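Morning F.,

Quick status update on the modeling queue. The single chain you submitted on Monday has been processed. Sequence for confirmation:
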Amino acid sequence: MVVHEVIPPQSKEITDAIRDKKTKPEELGAGDQGMMFGYATDEAGDDNYHPLSHLYASRIAEKLTQLRKSGEGSWLRPDCKSQITMKYKNEGNKIVPVGVHNVLVSTQHDPGVPADQIKEFVIEKVLNICDCFFNYSHYPSLNSM
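Structure tokens below.
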């Protein structure tokens, strides 16, 4: 087997900022690990300024966590992911959201929990954050350890 490394080195600016020019351990940073995403928008209609897709996806993950911790979804496990695709339209010189086009939910769960049970649970208990869902996809965890 041949493995090709295609990961570029960290930029000098980031390395300098987090490691090379630091002398105390408390000055060290995490570097460029993680992902940043988003932009400021008023599409949520409040003081949130997060894109609706990010807001709804976060709420879905939070709701799954609440249901797991409360015991209502006792078969849920901690690893879950959600993705929202919004539908937009042009209104004059603005692009405005008109609803949710797609919802993707992936959640780790105990072995043996049927996909139909997971789907019904997620639709009934989790996707009530918005009444405008169009399509729903559930991707069960391939590894429910």
